[in-house]
TrEMBL record:
Belongs to the class-III pyridoxal-phosphate-dependent aminotransferase family. It comes from Rhizobium setariae. PANTHER family: AMINOTRANSFERASE, AMINOTRANSFERASE CLASS-III. Its cofactor is pyridoxal 5'-phosphate. The keyword DNA repair does not apply. This is Aspartate aminotransferase family protein.
Protein backbone atom coordinates (compact mmCIF):
# COMPACT_ATOMS: atom_id res chain seq x y z
CA UNK A 1 0.00 0.00 0.00
CA UNK A 2 1.39 3.40 -0.90
CA UNK A 3 0.39 5.85 1.80
CA UNK A 4 -0.54 9.31 0.46
CA UNK A 5 1.93 12.06 1.46
CA UNK A 6 -0.73 14.07 3.28
CA UNK A 7 -1.42 11.08 5.55
CA UNK A 8 2.28 10.29 5.95
CA UNK A 9 3.13 13.75 7.24
CA UNK A 10 0.59 13.27 10.02
CA UNK A 11 1.40 9.62 10.77
CA UNK A 12 3.53 10.34 13.85
CA UNK A 13 0.62 12.10 15.55
CA UNK A 14 -1.86 9.38 14.57
CA UNK A 15 0.58 6.76 15.89
CA UNK A 16 1.08 8.54 19.21
CA UNK A 17 -2.69 8.81 19.61
CA UNK A 18 -3.63 5.23 18.79
CA UNK A 19 -0.81 2.71 18.60
CA UNK A 20 0.67 0.87 21.58
CA UNK A 21 3.98 -0.56 20.38
CA UNK A 22 5.44 -3.91 21.45
CA UNK A 23 8.53 -3.73 23.68
CA UNK A 24 8.57 0.07 23.67
CA UNK A 25 8.77 2.67 26.39
CA UNK A 26 5.75 4.62 25.18
CA UNK A 27 6.61 7.76 27.18
CA UNK A 28 10.00 8.07 25.50
CA UNK A 29 8.58 7.04 22.14
CA UNK A 30 5.89 9.70 22.15
CA UNK A 31 8.46 12.36 23.04
CA UNK A 32 10.93 11.32 20.36
CA UNK A 33 8.42 10.44 17.65
CA UNK A 34 8.08 7.11 15.90
CA UNK A 35 10.52 6.07 13.18
CA UNK A 36 8.36 5.23 10.19
CA UNK A 37 9.78 2.61 7.85
CA UNK A 38 8.15 2.72 4.47
CA UNK A 39 10.06 0.58 2.01
CA UNK A 40 12.69 -2.16 1.76
CA UNK A 41 15.04 -3.32 -0.97
CA UNK A 42 17.77 -5.96 -0.61
CA UNK A 43 19.49 -5.36 2.73
CA UNK A 44 18.20 -1.80 3.04
CA UNK A 45 15.13 -0.11 4.45
CA UNK A 46 13.96 3.46 3.82
CA UNK A 47 12.05 5.71 6.19
CA UNK A 48 9.26 8.16 5.32
CA UNK A 49 11.84 10.92 4.68
CA UNK A 50 13.63 8.69 2.18
CA UNK A 51 16.58 8.08 4.53
CA UNK A 52 18.34 4.82 3.71
CA UNK A 53 19.52 2.39 6.40
CA UNK A 54 21.52 -0.81 6.12
CA UNK A 55 19.39 -3.24 8.10
CA UNK A 56 22.05 -5.27 9.87
CA UNK A 57 19.32 -6.83 11.94
CA UNK A 58 17.10 -8.21 9.15
CA UNK A 59 14.03 -6.65 10.74
CA UNK A 60 13.90 -8.77 13.89
CA UNK A 61 16.38 -11.53 12.92
CA UNK A 62 14.03 -12.65 10.20
CA UNK A 63 14.31 -11.15 6.71
CA UNK A 64 16.83 -13.78 5.65
CA UNK A 65 16.34 -13.43 1.88
CA UNK A 66 16.27 -9.62 2.07
CA UNK A 67 13.52 -7.18 1.18
CA UNK A 68 11.60 -6.75 -2.06
CA UNK A 69 11.49 -10.28 -3.51
CA UNK A 70 8.75 -10.05 -6.09
CA UNK A 71 8.43 -13.85 -6.42
CA UNK A 72 6.96 -14.07 -2.94
CA UNK A 73 4.46 -11.30 -3.61
CA UNK A 74 3.40 -13.00 -6.86
CA UNK A 75 3.01 -16.43 -5.23
CA UNK A 76 0.99 -14.91 -2.39
CA UNK A 77 -1.23 -13.04 -4.86
CA UNK A 78 -1.92 -16.22 -6.82
CA UNK A 79 -2.74 -18.20 -3.66
CA UNK A 80 -4.99 -15.39 -2.38
CA UNK A 81 -7.02 -15.78 -5.57
CA UNK A 82 -7.03 -19.59 -5.48
CA UNK A 83 -7.83 -20.12 -1.79
CA UNK A 84 -7.25 -17.25 0.64
CA UNK A 85 -7.92 -19.36 3.70
CA UNK A 86 -8.83 -22.74 4.90
CA UNK A 87 -7.96 -24.43 8.16
CA UNK A 88 -6.22 -27.65 9.05
CA UNK A 89 -8.55 -28.60 11.90
CA UNK A 90 -10.51 -31.86 12.10
CA UNK A 91 -8.43 -33.74 9.58
CA UNK A 92 -8.29 -31.17 6.76
CA UNK A 93 -5.32 -29.59 4.98
CA UNK A 94 -4.52 -27.40 1.98
CA UNK A 95 -1.93 -28.26 -0.69
CA UNK A 96 0.61 -25.55 0.29
CA UNK A 97 0.43 -26.49 3.98
CA UNK A 98 1.29 -30.12 3.38
CA UNK A 99 3.95 -29.32 0.79
CA UNK A 100 5.57 -26.86 3.20
CA UNK A 101 5.80 -29.54 5.90
CA UNK A 102 7.55 -31.85 3.43
CA UNK A 103 9.93 -29.09 2.34
CA UNK A 104 10.92 -28.17 5.90
CA UNK A 105 11.68 -31.68 7.11
CA UNK A 106 13.85 -32.28 4.03
CA UNK A 107 16.38 -29.96 5.69
CA UNK A 108 16.10 -31.43 9.18
CA UNK A 109 17.95 -34.50 10.41
CA UNK A 110 16.82 -38.08 9.62
CA UNK A 111 14.86 -38.35 12.89
CA UNK A 112 12.75 -35.25 12.33
CA UNK A 113 9.86 -35.90 9.96
CA UNK A 114 6.86 -33.96 11.29
CA UNK A 115 5.82 -30.31 11.65
CA UNK A 116 3.01 -28.65 13.59
CA UNK A 117 2.22 -25.17 12.21
CA UNK A 118 1.74 -21.97 14.19
CA UNK A 119 1.75 -18.27 13.30
CA UNK A 120 4.70 -17.20 15.41
CA UNK A 121 7.60 -18.32 17.54
CA UNK A 122 5.65 -17.63 20.73
CA UNK A 123 2.84 -19.91 19.64
CA UNK A 124 5.43 -22.50 18.69
CA UNK A 125 6.74 -22.29 22.25
CA UNK A 126 3.29 -22.85 23.72
CA UNK A 127 2.81 -25.73 21.30
CA UNK A 128 5.93 -27.71 22.19
CA UNK A 129 5.35 -26.98 25.89
CA UNK A 130 1.97 -28.70 25.69
CA UNK A 131 3.33 -31.43 23.42
CA UNK A 132 6.07 -32.28 25.91
CA UNK A 133 3.54 -32.71 28.71
CA UNK A 134 1.15 -34.72 26.52
CA UNK A 135 4.09 -36.91 25.45
CA UNK A 136 5.00 -37.92 28.99
CA UNK A 137 1.39 -38.29 30.11
CA UNK A 138 0.75 -40.75 27.28
CA UNK A 139 3.82 -42.71 28.25
CA UNK A 140 2.34 -43.16 31.71
CA UNK A 141 4.48 -40.49 33.38
CA UNK A 142 1.98 -37.72 34.15
CA UNK A 143 4.19 -36.16 36.80
CA UNK A 144 6.81 -35.21 34.23
CA UNK A 145 5.48 -31.69 33.64
CA UNK A 146 8.18 -29.24 34.71
CA UNK A 147 10.36 -27.48 32.17
CA UNK A 148 13.77 -25.95 32.65
CA UNK A 149 14.89 -22.89 30.69
CA UNK A 150 17.80 -20.50 31.08
CA UNK A 151 18.34 -17.14 32.66
CA UNK A 152 18.37 -14.52 29.89
CA UNK A 153 16.89 -16.94 27.36
CA UNK A 154 14.07 -15.72 25.10
CA UNK A 155 11.21 -17.89 23.92
CA UNK A 156 8.44 -15.42 23.15
CA UNK A 157 5.83 -13.21 24.75
CA UNK A 158 2.89 -15.46 25.52
CA UNK A 159 2.49 -16.43 29.17
CA UNK A 160 4.32 -19.74 28.64
CA UNK A 161 6.91 -18.11 26.37
CA UNK A 162 7.70 -15.28 28.75
CA UNK A 163 7.84 -17.77 31.63
CA UNK A 164 10.17 -20.17 29.83
CA UNK A 165 12.38 -17.28 28.82
CA UNK A 166 14.64 -15.96 31.52
CA UNK A 167 14.18 -12.23 31.05
CA UNK A 168 13.79 -10.63 34.47
CA UNK A 169 12.11 -7.54 33.08
CA UNK A 170 9.42 -9.75 31.54
CA UNK A 171 8.94 -11.84 34.69
CA UNK A 172 8.43 -8.66 36.69
CA UNK A 173 5.35 -7.83 34.63
CA UNK A 174 2.47 -10.24 35.14
CA UNK A 175 3.77 -12.37 38.01
CA UNK A 176 5.84 -14.78 35.92
CA UNK A 177 7.11 -17.43 35.57
CA UNK A 178 4.06 -19.62 35.88
CA UNK A 179 4.28 -22.67 38.12
CA UNK A 180 6.40 -25.57 36.93
CA UNK A 181 8.99 -23.54 35.06
CA UNK A 182 12.55 -23.25 36.35
CA UNK A 183 15.76 -21.69 35.13
CA UNK A 184 19.47 -22.40 35.18
CA UNK A 185 22.41 -20.17 34.23
CA UNK A 186 23.55 -19.11 30.79
CA UNK A 187 26.85 -19.90 29.05
CA UNK A 188 27.95 -16.24 29.07
CA UNK A 189 31.64 -16.69 29.76
CA UNK A 190 32.68 -13.05 29.29
CA UNK A 191 30.39 -11.78 32.04
CA UNK A 192 30.14 -14.77 34.35
CA UNK A 193 33.08 -17.06 33.65
CA UNK A 194 35.40 -15.58 36.29
CA UNK A 195 38.79 -17.31 36.28
CA UNK A 196 37.56 -20.42 34.47
CA UNK A 197 38.53 -21.08 30.87
CA UNK A 198 35.58 -20.95 28.45
CA UNK A 199 35.72 -24.76 28.16
CA UNK A 200 35.58 -25.21 31.95
CA UNK A 201 32.81 -22.67 32.23
CA UNK A 202 30.78 -24.35 29.47
CA UNK A 203 30.85 -27.62 31.44
CA UNK A 204 30.05 -25.87 34.70
CA UNK A 205 26.89 -24.16 33.43
CA UNK A 206 25.76 -27.26 31.53
CA UNK A 207 26.02 -29.24 34.75
CA UNK A 208 23.66 -26.81 36.43
CA UNK A 209 21.03 -28.67 34.41
CA UNK A 210 21.95 -31.93 36.11
CA UNK A 211 21.80 -30.30 39.53
CA UNK A 212 18.42 -28.72 38.76
CA UNK A 213 16.99 -32.07 37.60
CA UNK A 214 18.24 -33.64 40.85
CA UNK A 215 16.64 -30.85 42.86
CA UNK A 216 13.26 -31.16 41.10
CA UNK A 217 13.34 -34.93 40.70
CA UNK A 218 13.81 -36.61 37.33
CA UNK A 219 10.25 -37.94 37.44
CA UNK A 220 8.91 -34.39 37.52
CA UNK A 221 10.88 -32.87 34.63
CA UNK A 222 9.56 -33.00 31.07
CA UNK A 223 12.07 -30.97 29.10
CA UNK A 224 14.94 -28.53 28.87
CA UNK A 225 14.79 -25.66 26.37
CA UNK A 226 17.54 -23.43 25.03
CA UNK A 227 18.41 -21.47 21.94
CA UNK A 228 21.45 -23.05 20.20
CA UNK A 229 22.90 -19.53 20.33
CA UNK A 230 21.17 -17.22 22.78
CA UNK A 231 19.79 -14.43 20.59
CA UNK A 232 17.92 -11.65 22.37
CA UNK A 233 20.07 -12.34 25.44
CA UNK A 234 23.05 -10.94 23.50
CA UNK A 235 24.13 -13.42 20.78
CA UNK A 236 25.95 -15.51 23.32
CA UNK A 237 27.82 -18.30 21.58
CA UNK A 238 28.34 -21.12 24.08
CA UNK A 239 31.79 -22.64 24.67
CA UNK A 240 32.30 -25.82 22.64
CA UNK A 241 31.98 -28.02 25.72
CA UNK A 242 28.45 -26.81 26.42
CA UNK A 243 26.12 -28.58 23.96
CA UNK A 244 27.72 -32.05 24.13
CA UNK A 245 27.29 -31.97 27.91
CA UNK A 246 23.68 -30.78 27.71
CA UNK A 247 22.95 -33.53 25.21
CA UNK A 248 24.53 -36.13 27.52
CA UNK A 249 22.54 -34.93 30.53
CA UNK A 250 19.17 -34.87 28.73
CA UNK A 251 19.74 -38.41 27.45
CA UNK A 252 20.99 -39.73 30.80
CA UNK A 253 18.09 -38.19 32.72
CA UNK A 254 15.44 -39.00 30.13
CA UNK A 255 14.14 -35.47 29.55
CA UNK A 256 13.25 -33.98 26.20
CA UNK A 257 15.75 -31.62 24.62
CA UNK A 258 14.14 -28.63 22.94
CA UNK A 259 16.22 -26.43 20.64
CA UNK A 260 14.57 -23.07 20.05
CA UNK A 261 15.42 -22.47 16.39
CA UNK A 262 13.29 -19.36 15.96
CA UNK A 263 16.38 -17.24 15.27
CA UNK A 264 19.01 -19.86 14.43
CA UNK A 265 16.87 -21.73 11.89
CA UNK A 266 16.90 -21.34 8.10
CA UNK A 267 20.50 -20.52 7.46
CA UNK A 268 21.45 -17.90 9.98
CA UNK A 269 24.31 -19.98 11.39
CA UNK A 270 25.50 -21.35 8.03
CA UNK A 271 23.60 -24.61 8.64
CA UNK A 272 19.89 -25.06 8.05
CA UNK A 273 19.37 -25.26 11.80
CA UNK A 274 21.50 -24.13 14.75
CA UNK A 275 21.51 -27.58 16.34
CA UNK A 276 23.15 -28.97 13.20
CA UNK A 277 25.96 -26.46 13.66
CA UNK A 278 26.51 -27.76 17.19
CA UNK A 279 26.12 -31.42 16.21
CA UNK A 280 23.03 -32.56 18.10
CA UNK A 281 19.43 -33.47 17.29
CA UNK A 282 16.63 -32.10 19.46
CA UNK A 283 13.39 -33.86 20.31
CA UNK A 284 11.39 -30.71 19.53
CA UNK A 285 12.37 -27.50 17.77
CA UNK A 286 10.21 -24.38 17.46
CA UNK A 287 10.80 -22.35 14.29
CA UNK A 288 9.44 -19.08 12.81
CA UNK A 289 11.13 -15.90 11.49
CA UNK A 290 13.45 -17.14 8.70
CA UNK A 291 10.88 -19.78 7.67
CA UNK A 292 9.09 -17.09 5.66
CA UNK A 293 11.80 -14.42 5.98
CA UNK A 294 9.08 -12.44 7.75
CA UNK A 295 7.09 -11.89 4.54
CA UNK A 296 4.05 -13.37 6.28
CA UNK A 297 3.69 -14.70 9.82
CA UNK A 298 4.34 -18.42 9.98
CA UNK A 299 6.00 -20.64 12.55
CA UNK A 300 5.92 -24.23 13.64
CA UNK A 301 7.38 -26.98 15.75
CA UNK A 302 9.65 -29.63 14.25
CA UNK A 303 8.79 -32.89 15.94
CA UNK A 304 11.21 -35.81 16.15
CA UNK A 305 10.04 -39.35 15.45
CA UNK A 306 10.31 -40.14 19.16
CA UNK A 307 7.70 -37.52 20.04
CA UNK A 308 5.68 -37.75 16.82
CA UNK A 309 5.05 -41.46 17.45
CA UNK A 310 3.19 -40.54 20.61
CA UNK A 311 1.51 -37.31 19.46
CA UNK A 312 0.20 -38.90 16.24
CA UNK A 313 -1.32 -41.72 18.26
CA UNK A 314 -3.37 -39.28 20.35
CA UNK A 315 -6.03 -36.64 19.83
CA UNK A 316 -3.84 -33.55 20.40
CA UNK A 317 -6.32 -30.84 21.42
CA UNK A 318 -4.30 -27.86 20.36
CA UNK A 319 -4.22 -25.57 17.34
CA UNK A 320 -4.68 -22.09 15.98
CA UNK A 321 -7.25 -20.87 13.46
CA UNK A 322 -4.37 -19.98 11.18
CA UNK A 323 -2.17 -23.05 11.78
CA UNK A 324 -0.90 -23.93 8.31
CA UNK A 325 -2.57 -20.90 6.65
CA UNK A 326 -2.29 -21.58 2.90
CA UNK A 327 -1.17 -18.07 1.92
CA UNK A 328 1.51 -17.98 4.62
CA UNK A 329 2.57 -21.48 3.58
CA UNK A 330 3.03 -20.35 -0.01
CA UNK A 331 5.20 -17.43 1.15
CA UNK A 332 7.31 -19.86 3.19
CA UNK A 333 7.62 -22.35 0.31
CA UNK A 334 8.79 -19.60 -2.01
CA UNK A 335 11.21 -18.35 0.64
CA UNK A 336 12.69 -21.85 1.08
CA UNK A 337 12.95 -22.20 -2.70
CA UNK A 338 14.99 -18.98 -2.83
CA UNK A 339 17.23 -20.13 0.04
CA UNK A 340 17.80 -23.46 -1.74
CA UNK A 341 18.21 -22.27 -5.34
CA UNK A 342 20.41 -19.32 -4.47
CA UNK A 343 22.39 -21.49 -2.06
CA UNK A 344 22.13 -18.84 0.61
CA UNK A 345 22.82 -21.24 3.49
CA UNK A 346 26.01 -22.43 1.78
CA UNK A 347 26.88 -18.79 1.11
CA UNK A 348 26.67 -18.05 4.84
CA UNK A 349 28.80 -21.09 5.66
CA UNK A 350 31.51 -20.66 3.01
CA UNK A 351 31.63 -17.03 2.01
CA UNK A 352 29.78 -14.22 3.74
CA UNK A 353 29.83 -15.82 7.20
CA UNK A 354 33.64 -16.09 7.33
CA UNK A 355 33.90 -12.59 5.81
CA UNK A 356 31.53 -11.23 8.46
CA UNK A 357 33.53 -12.98 11.24
CA UNK A 358 36.78 -11.42 10.02
CA UNK A 359 35.28 -7.97 9.73
CA UNK A 360 33.49 -8.25 13.10
CA UNK A 361 36.62 -9.39 14.92
CA UNK A 362 38.68 -6.60 13.35
CA UNK A 363 36.94 -4.43 15.98
CA UNK A 364 38.81 -6.28 18.71
CA UNK A 365 41.64 -3.76 18.35
CA UNK A 366 39.29 -1.09 19.70
CA UNK A 367 39.81 -0.15 23.37
CA UNK A 368 36.14 -0.61 24.05
CA UNK A 369 35.68 -4.09 22.53
CA UNK A 370 36.40 -7.08 24.73
CA UNK A 371 34.97 -9.95 22.69
CA UNK A 372 33.66 -10.48 19.15
CA UNK A 373 31.57 -13.64 18.84
CA UNK A 374 29.86 -14.82 15.70
CA UNK A 375 28.52 -17.90 13.97
CA UNK A 376 27.42 -17.47 10.37
CA UNK A 377 25.60 -14.15 10.20
CA UNK A 378 24.82 -13.80 13.88
CA UNK A 379 27.23 -11.64 15.85
CA UNK A 380 27.58 -10.40 19.43
CA UNK A 381 30.12 -7.72 20.23
CA UNK A 382 30.99 -7.21 23.87
CA UNK A 383 31.81 -3.69 25.00
CA UNK A 384 33.88 -3.36 28.14
CA UNK A 385 35.08 -0.56 30.41
CA UNK A 386 38.40 -2.34 30.84
CA UNK A 387 38.98 -5.16 28.40
CA UNK A 388 42.09 -6.42 30.23
CA UNK A 389 40.11 -7.24 33.36
CA UNK A 390 36.72 -7.80 31.61
CA UNK A 391 35.30 -5.01 33.77
CA UNK A 392 31.84 -3.96 32.57
CA UNK A 393 30.44 -0.44 32.33
CA UNK A 394 28.49 0.78 35.32
CA UNK A 395 25.40 1.42 33.18
CA UNK A 396 25.63 -1.13 30.37
CA UNK A 397 22.18 -0.29 28.91
CA UNK A 398 23.10 3.37 28.51
CA UNK A 399 26.32 2.53 26.65
CA UNK A 400 24.59 0.10 24.30
CA UNK A 401 21.73 2.48 23.58
CA UNK A 402 24.13 5.35 22.89
CA UNK A 403 26.19 3.36 20.39
CA UNK A 404 23.09 1.94 18.74
CA UNK A 405 21.57 5.40 18.31
CA UNK A 406 24.81 6.72 16.85
CA UNK A 407 24.74 3.89 14.29
CA UNK A 408 21.11 4.62 13.40
CA UNK A 409 21.99 8.30 12.83
CA UNK A 410 24.66 7.11 10.40
CA UNK A 411 22.24 4.86 8.53
CA UNK A 412 22.93 1.51 10.19
CA UNK A 413 20.33 -0.50 12.06
CA UNK A 414 21.84 -2.65 14.79
CA UNK A 415 20.53 -3.79 18.12
CA UNK A 416 22.02 -3.38 21.59
CA UNK A 417 21.36 -5.73 24.49
CA UNK A 418 22.95 -4.12 27.52
CA UNK A 419 26.59 -3.59 26.57
CA UNK A 420 26.55 -6.03 23.65
CA UNK A 421 25.99 -4.90 20.08
CA UNK A 422 24.13 -7.47 18.02
CA UNK A 423 24.08 -8.06 14.28
CA UNK A 424 21.92 -10.44 12.27
CA UNK A 425 21.82 -9.14 8.69
CA UNK A 426 19.98 -10.62 5.71
CA UNK A 427 21.81 -13.63 4.28
CA UNK A 428 22.21 -11.70 1.01
CA UNK A 429 24.29 -8.93 2.58
CA UNK A 430 27.27 -8.06 0.36
CA UNK A 431 30.92 -7.79 1.35
CA UNK A 432 30.74 -4.01 0.85
CA UNK A 433 27.71 -3.78 3.11
CA UNK A 434 29.53 -5.76 5.81
CA UNK A 435 32.42 -3.28 5.48
CA UNK A 436 29.98 -0.39 5.88
CA UNK A 437 28.51 -2.02 8.98
CA UNK A 438 31.90 -2.47 10.65
CA UNK A 439 33.28 0.95 9.75
CA UNK A 440 30.09 2.72 10.87
CA UNK A 441 30.17 0.82 14.13
CA UNK A 442 33.84 1.73 14.61
CA UNK A 443 33.05 5.41 14.09
CA UNK A 444 30.28 5.18 16.69
CA UNK A 445 32.61 3.44 19.16
CA UNK A 446 35.30 6.10 18.56
CA UNK A 447 32.78 8.80 19.37
CA UNK A 448 31.74 6.98 22.54
CA UNK A 449 35.21 6.34 23.94
N1 LIG B 1 12.11 -17.85 20.37
C1 LIG B 1 13.16 -17.10 20.09
C2 LIG B 1 14.53 -17.66 20.22
C3 LIG B 1 12.99 -15.78 19.66
O1 LIG B 1 14.05 -15.01 19.42
C4 LIG B 1 11.68 -15.28 19.51
C5 LIG B 1 11.46 -13.90 19.04
O2 LIG B 1 12.36 -13.11 18.92
C6 LIG B 1 10.60 -16.11 19.82
C7 LIG B 1 10.84 -17.40 20.24
C8 LIG B 1 9.21 -15.61 19.71
O3 LIG B 1 8.85 -15.47 18.38
P1 LIG B 1 7.66 -14.50 17.96
O4 LIG B 1 8.10 -13.10 18.24
O5 LIG B 1 7.48 -14.80 16.49
O6 LIG B 1 6.47 -14.88 18.73
Amino acid sequence: MTTPNAVLSNLGAIDAAHHIHPFSDMKKLNAAGTRIIQRGEGSHIFDNHGKKYLDAFAGLWCVNIGYGRREIADAVFAQMNELPYYNCFFGTTTPPTTLLAEKIVAHAGPNINHVFFTNSGSEATDTWFRMARVYWAHLGKPTKTMVIGRRNGYHGSTVAGASLGGMKYMHEQGALPIEGIHHIGQPYWYAEGGDLTPAEFGLKVARELEAKIDELGEDNVAAFVAEPIQGAGGVIVPPETYWPEIKRICAARNILLVADEVICGFGRTGSWFGHQHFGFEPDLAPVAKGLSSGYLPVGGVLVSDRVAKVITSTDFNHGYTYSGHPVCAVAAIENLRILEEEKLVERVRDDIGPYFAKSWSSLLDHDMIGEAQSVGLMGGLQMAFDKKTRQRFEKPDDVGTWVRNKCIEAGLIMRATGDRMLASPPLIITHEEVDFMTSTLRTALDAAW
